[in-house]
Amino acid sequence: MTEPAKRAAGRAAATLVQDGMLVGLGSGSTMRHAITALAHRVHSEGLRIVGIPTSTETEALALTHGITVAEPDATPVDLVMDGADEIETGTLRLVKGFGGALLREKIVAQSGRRFVVVADASKLVARLGQRGRLPVEVDRFGQAASARRIAELGGAPALRCDADGTPFETDGGHFILDCMGFGLIRDPFTLDRQLRAIAGVIETGLFLLPVEQVLIGTDDGTVRVL
Ligand code: 5RP
Q1: Which atom from ligand 1 is nearest to the alpha carbon of 100?
Q2: What is the three-class DSSP state of 3?
Q3: EC number(s) of the enzyme (predicted)?
Q4: Probe ligand 1: pick from 35, 58, 96, max atoms within 8 Å of CB?
Q5: For the purposes of burial, counting CB atoms within 10 Å of the CB of 163, is it exposed (0-12), middle (13-18) or buried (19 or more)?
Q6: Which atom of ligand 1 approaches the CA of 119 most closely?
Q7: Which of 81, 85, 123, 222 is the most buried if burial means most Cβ atoms within 10 Å?
């Protein structure tokens, strides 16, 4: 994914925001462009918005840009924008969580009246699972037991680790199991249900909620809307 394509998608998402909105701010490199573009509008147009960040990293970026932030508790979020790791072209179902922010991203996405995805064409897949990895967030307690249960489902889970070999920790203090064994996911609803039936599973990277539009940026700066 090249920066011009990410920037084009991020800028297009920023144009959807209107004065007074509560805006869910997703995580990842494409969303960084959206937040930068949004901050530009806040300052140049006097747009009054409140951002609902989906990660501590996004929160820090929004605050750096002078965007007011809040949690999604008080009221429905008007518009949620976020990146994705896979977008199934026929259904607009998603895999998310390669960046590790899936739990907060899903909480915010479910709080939104509208959900818009920003990406470039490398994220488009004919079938979920094509990139070979499904992130699953699990409680630290009994994570090996949770991994065994996921392995029984064919998930071939691997504990995500930082460069120094220590387990990657999410903003919520949980671990991530990257599941490499599910192959192409023909029935994501059933897989999601099976995974969430495991007590240690906090959330899966399957985002099966309605997506209003997907903004696909390209290197020449144009944007395709799915
Ligand atoms: C993080 C995510 C991100 O939205 C996803 O990884 C996309 O990131 P990028 O725009 O950097 O490709 O799901 O948990």
Answers
A1: 14
A2: helix
A3: 5.3.1.6
A4: 96
A5: exposed
A6: 10
A7: 81
Q: Ligand 1 pocket, 80 CB below 6 A? A: no
Between CA 6 and CA 120 the distance in angstroms is: 6
Contact 226, 92 (CB under 8 A): yes
| Average pLDDT value for residue range 57-65 | 97
> Which amino acid does the sequence have at 149?
R
- Residue closest via CA to ligand 1's atom 4 equals 83
pLDDT tens column, 180-207 = 999 999 999 999 999 999 999 999 999 9
126-145 pLDDT tens trace = 999 999 999 999 999 999 99
Write out the DSSP string of 91-135. T--EE--TTS-HHHHHHHHHHBS-EEEEEEGGGEESSTTTTS-EE
Q: State if residue 82 touches ligand 1 by the CB under 6 angstroms criterion.
A: yes
Has residue 172 got a pLDDT over 80?
Answer: yes
With a 6 Å cutoff on the Cβ, whether 203 touches ligand 1 is no
Amino acid at 99: G
Distance 82 CA to ligand 1 centre (A): 8
ipTM of the complex: 0.97
Q: Which residues on adjacent β-strands are paired with residue 116?
A: 81, 213
Q: Look up the pTM and report it.
A: 0.95
Kindly give the distance from the C-alpha atom of residue 81 to the centroid of ligand 1, in angstroms, as a whole number: 11
